[in-house]
Amino acid sequence: MSDVKAVRITRLIAIPAVITLAVTILRVVGELNHWPMPWFSTAGGGGGALVGISWLPIVFGPYFALKLAAAGDKPASSGKAILFAFLGLVAFFVAGLLLVLAMKHPSVLTLGAFILTLLAGFVPLIGWRSLGRVLLAYALAARIPVLIVMFYAMRGNGGAGWGTHYDAVAPGFAALPFAQKYLYMAVMPQLTLWIGWTIIVGAVFGSIVAAIANRGKQAAPAAV
């Protein structure tokens, strides 16, 4: 049974994962060639560039939700799914505020704050477990390639970096050895904060869209 679920999730996220990888590659090429804002930016954190993968859960969350619902894999309660998605969002922002404070002085507390952003991402699973699992798988498929890019970007040019947002380092981390910089600026954000963000944003938009679609289907027979 577990094998069937794994294959199903893999098939469900395959196309979104390929699209996400294509966007990542496009962004790397754009930043290396200094293509203009607002499409690309080499500023730390991405500079709000339009070409990026952080907004894709807004699209793929509903896509996954509708696919699951069409297969009969709906939440027990649409209201509960939406509620826990928003509770996850609140928890994420609280953890994010703690992270901002902890980032000023890198320590074990910083790592703990990162982990809290990841744990916040599991709150939506209480309302719709299958959607949360699909979003988790998609998040890993989206972020692991970024982690690889960041490794080479930060090591590039003899350690000076590529000059992209992938190797931009916060001032408080610039003097740290490469292993520590990579841990704090790449591994932890990509495998905690951005995983949590992807699940939560996907769950918020996905659960709302699925609830609206489900209501429409229920109302249709009554209108005939």
The total count of strands amounts to: 0
| Strand/helix succession | HHHHHH
Roughly what percent helix?
55-70%
Structural class: mainly alpha
Provide a descriptive summary of the structure in words:
This protein has 224 residues and is an all-alpha fold. It has one domain (2-223). Helices cover 70% and strands 0% of the residues. The N and C termini lie far apart (40 Å). The model is unreliable at 220-224 (pLDDT under 50).
Spell out the blueprint of helices and strands.
Layout: H1 2-32, H2 57-70, H3 78-102, H4 108-120, H5 129-155, H6 178-223
Pick out its properties.
224 residues; mainly alpha; globular
Brief rundown of the structure:
The protein is mainly alpha-helical. It has 6 helices and no strands.
